[in-house]
């Protein structure tokens, strides 16, 4: 059985991993907006225990997807020598990583706050 991958195979694997990172981020954004809309529409009808359950499930999925993203990025970093011509410059990659992480963390926190407070206008009749 062959143990080493060719440069072409490594580049294809790198492309698969980096597209996986983007897919995970897009999935997180989709889930976030679904939770926000559901909380706005039905939040005032949910018992506090169900709001906590939604918050815990959403946070768990956010953390899981983020850890998968981190794992994919670390996996892709192993192939930087082979894919040097294709990869993003170091400073730009660092900026993207910091911004994506900031959006992920702040977006998760804001969504959790919204689960508990986003329906208040709906309750008061000012929707």
Brief summary:
The protein is mainly α. The chain contains four helices and no strands.
Low-confidence stretches: none
**Proportion in β-strands:** under 5%
**What is the residue-mean pLDDT, rounded to a whole number?**
78
Q: Quick one: how many beta strands?
A: 0
In helices, the fraction of residues equals over 70%
Please give the largest β-sheet. none
Measured distance between first and last alpha carbons: 64 Å
Count of the domains: 1
What structural class do you assign from the helix and strand content?
mainly alpha
Descriptive account of the structure:
It is built from 4 helices and no strands. The protein has helices at residues 7-42, 48-77, 90-117, 120-124. It is elongated. It is 78% helix and 0% strand. α1 packs antiparallel against α2 (48-77). The longest helix has 36 residues, at 7-42. The chain has 127 residues and is mainly α. The mean pLDDT is 78. It has one domain (7-124).
Spell out the blueprint of helices and strands.
Blueprint: H1 7-42, H2 48-77, H3 90-117, H4 120-124
